[in-house]
Amino acid sequence: MKIPYLAIRTAGMTAAVAIMLTGALASTVSAAYDDMDAVSLAEKMVGKGYTASGETPSEGFDASGLTTYIFQTLNYQMPRNLDDQFTMNKPQVKSIADAEPGDVLFFGSHNKPSFSGIYTGGGKMVLALSSKSEVVTRSVNDFKSQYLGGRRILSAKDRLRVNLILTAQQYLGVPYDFGAKYGQTKTFDCSSFMKWIFNKYDIDLPRVSRDQAKEGTFVSRSNLAAGDLVFFTTRDSGGKIGHVGMYVGNGMMIHTFGEGGVKFSTIASGWWDDHYVTARRVIR
């Protein structure tokens, strides 16, 4: 059975889950982003225009406007002014080497910030860059000499959501194999993949999807958040749960099934929409 999917991966990509919805797929997915994680949302803004004082995707962004938009979308209080963001009462990130995905990094001179970026992992960040007239992904090392410090905005739970998704996307394209042996990464089935990813963050899941659907707490479809487990029936499951994936926001999940192995798929339309059963939140 061939399932439509969207898988985006670039050579050496170890940073963010970049879910760029286009064409017919985009029209089926909600434009609300508050169910996403900070890194995925930042990556989604890449290509938007640079506009002085801009703070929305439609008008474009300046540096602090991008940060304001990302974190306020995710229900974090965020001052609009760059200087105020730099001096927020949040944990400091003194060294670039200590940065974690979702941290806001500031650059300038004489302790005066002139721009900022959202760290997305793997030495990369997303920022609204005036010289490029758009939101771009750049290496933090390009601006290392101008680094002033950073602020850790995300809660521990939201950092976990980011890291679960970043870890899962490292396996994009790994082949699907029903009944794949747990503990190896040459192949996965849906539940061994979820068990493998969550176990890396000390969340122990049962081996099969039907049992995983009993873990954590129920979450309604309208309240899904990045990192939630989503469950489905399949042609061979006799009307019972037979498939699991991890919700990544904006109507998408990462999972493995059939052709293409580990991939991103929409749950907002098509097969997975029609066969959706329930979701569980196992992030404690």
From TrEMBL:
Keywords: Hydrolase, Protease, Signal, Thiol protease. PROSITE patterns: NLPC_P60. Residues 1-31 form the signal peptide. Residues 32-154, 158-283 form the NlpC/P60 domain. SUPFAM superfamilies: Cysteine proteinases. InterPro entries: NLP_P60_dom, Papain-like_cys_pep_sf, Peptidase_C40. The keyword Hydrolase applies. Pfam families: NLPC_P60. Belongs to the peptidase C40 family. This is NlpC/P60 family protein. It comes from Paenibacillus filicis.
